[in-house]
Amino acid sequence: MNRLFRSSVRARVLSSRLGSLLLLFQRSPIVQMLFPEARVLGAAGLGDLATWTVASVVGLGAYDTVAGATVVAQISPNATAGSTAVTAAVGSPISFIVQCTGAPSTPGSWTMSAVPAGLTHSNSKNSTTDSLSGTPTTAGTYPITAKAWEGSNFNGGSKSTNFTMTVGPAIITTSPSSTTISSGSTTTLTVVASGTPLAYQWYRGASGVTTTPIAGATAASFTTPALTAATNYWVKVTRGTLTATTNPVIANSATATVSIGVAPAITTQPTASTTINSGSSATLTVVASGTPAPTYQWYVGSPPSTTTPATGASATTASYTTPALSQNTTYWVRATNTSGSVNSNAASVTINQPATVTTHPASTTINSGATTTLSVTAGGTGPFTYQWYQGTSGTTTTPVGTNSSSFTTTALSTNTSYWVKVTNAANTTGANS
């Protein structure tokens, strides 16, 4: 009887110790492990139970994975509980955020595997959340494992969850283009997007600023109202629909600026008169203002005659280089943009004709001791330069005379020959008489 009593007392003492231990466990997440193992508790001796319980506590670590106590789940962009799908698109910014809940302590570090190109892992420390953010650059399917670690150096207990990020092709393939219109006109802006389903919303302002949505502008093309001042527009394109596990993917277009045109005005006329040597070319230049910047077309003749457009690659630029010319020619240019056109003044290109000898000095007979005057007539474009020589034509060893079309000899007592070279800007080599 005494032995039974002593055994009962020992059992109560052990039960009391276990009760204190269980009470302690009930104040921590460890109890989540004990209750699912009730069948083990019922079959174990008290001494074995205490040993088993202590061993389980030592081996459990900081993250209780029993019965899902510690959970790593997605909170963005798909906040639906239990969602393991992530949708994204090339060129569209994304922020993929996961959160660790139910853990006895804050995760010290995080790891993420198979990060798509263009995204950066935040590598959070001592944080219940972790993220990937950026703009994906490569389409594909990426199996991502997000793991929360107890320690700050990816050590200790851990909890991980697998996600599948599907990066689709770019939503916007062509953003609306900037353009210039006349004051009081309208224009139509268009975005080109891919995928299904697609939804559009146009805004006034810079890309990303959503304070001024345009009512009813929910198609791929948008026609502006009549504008009298430069205005910016952009469009938000949404691909996909909200489901239990996915969110739509959004892309913002570039900003399209609609500028108001200003008709061209010529601020610097081409030089009114230019002189060149025959066989040379001239470059004529005009300066014109206007919005958008004007285009140019040069013409041969005087404005407004357009019967003879100038030729050559530069005939449609602000500076025009003529072909090689042998006769006087007149040119002008028209500057044009979407708001109008303007004609320049005429520019004359005068040709310097090369020097020639049209009347040669004539041979003559004089008395011994007398003098005579020889003369030459030059052709071409003056002014001319003359140089007389004694000797036969082309012999320059004995220059005589002055820079004149006439030359008076000295008193002569023997037969003597003379000739003259005529030069000008177009013939620097000269023409020999």
The largest pleated sheet is described as: 5 strands, mixed
Radius of gyration: 49 Å
The chain-level mean pLDDT equals 86
Head-to-tail CA distance between termini: 162 Å
The number of distinct β-strands equals: 34
Structural overview:
The protein has 433 residues and is mostly beta strands. The chain is 12% helix and 40% strand. It has four helices and 34 strands. The chain is elongated and about 145 Å long. The termini are far apart.
Defining traits:
mainly beta; 5-stranded mixed beta sheet; 4 helices; 12% helix; elongated
How is the topology of this model organized?
Layout: H1 2-26, H2 31-34, H3 38-43, H4 46-60, E1 71-76, E2 85-89, E3 94-101, E4 109-112, E5 119-121, E6 129-134, E7 140-149, E8 158-168, E9 172-174, E10 179-181, E11 188-190, E12 192-193, E13 198-204, E14 221-223, E15 231-239, E16 249-252, E17 256-260, E18 262-268, E19 273-277, E20 283-285, E21 287-291, E22 295-300, E23 319-321, E24 329-337, E25 340-343, E26 347-352, E27 356-359, E28 373-375, E29 377-379, E30 385-390, E31 399-400, E32 406-408, E33 418-424, E34 427-432
Parallel strand pairs: 2-8, 10-17, 19-26
Antiparallel strand pairs: 1-3, 3-6, 4-7, 5-6, 7-8, 9-12, 11-14, 13-15, 15-16, 15-17, 18-21, 20-23, 22-24, 24-25, 24-26, 27-29, 28-32, 30-31, 30-33, 33-34
Short structural summary:
The protein contains four helices and 34 strands. The chain is mainly beta. A hairpin with an 8-residue loop joins strand 7 (140-149) and strand 8.
